[in-house]
């Protein structure tokens, strides 16, 4: 799944303990991890996957592929968001 959608958090909830690290920024889960839920069920936790969609590089942060702190140019993703919105969605007339 995509980065930061709650894969590790879901596993922690099902296990009812903190068996997977979680965080607010992408990249906390760095490798594949198996978690034994019960005798018959084994879960896999893996890093987020973002496939190349052919979108411009400014769209990568919008898919969670890049942590906001690592952006060199924060305006490009903001412009990409505004291009997807109608004037009414951003508070215009």
Automatic annotation (TrEMBL):
Pfam families tied to this protein: MMR_HSR1
Domain G stretches: 1-50
Keywords: GTP-binding, Nucleotide-binding
Record-linked Gene3D superfamilies: P-loop containing nucleotide triphosphate hydrolases
Molecular function terms from GO: GTP binding
Cross-referenced InterPro entries: GTP-bd (IPR006073), P-loop_NTPase (IPR027417), TRAFAC_YlqF/YawG_RiboMat (IPR050755)
GO terms for cellular component: nucleolus
Protein name: GNL3 protein
Organism, as annotated: Smithornis capensis
UniProt gene name: Gnl3_1
């Amino acid at each position: 799944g995509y980065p930061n959608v709650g894969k590790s958090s879901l596993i922690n909830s099902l296990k009812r303990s903190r068996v997977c690290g979680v965080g607010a920024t992408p990249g906390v889960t760095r490798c594949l991890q198996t978690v034994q839920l019960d005798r018959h069920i084994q879960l896999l936790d893996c890093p987020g996957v973002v496939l190349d969609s052919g979108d411009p590089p400014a769209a990568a942060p919008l898919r969670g592929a890049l942590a906001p702190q690592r952006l060199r140019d924060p305006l490009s993703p903001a412009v990409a968001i505004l291009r997807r919105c109608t004037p009414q969605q951003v508070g215009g007339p």
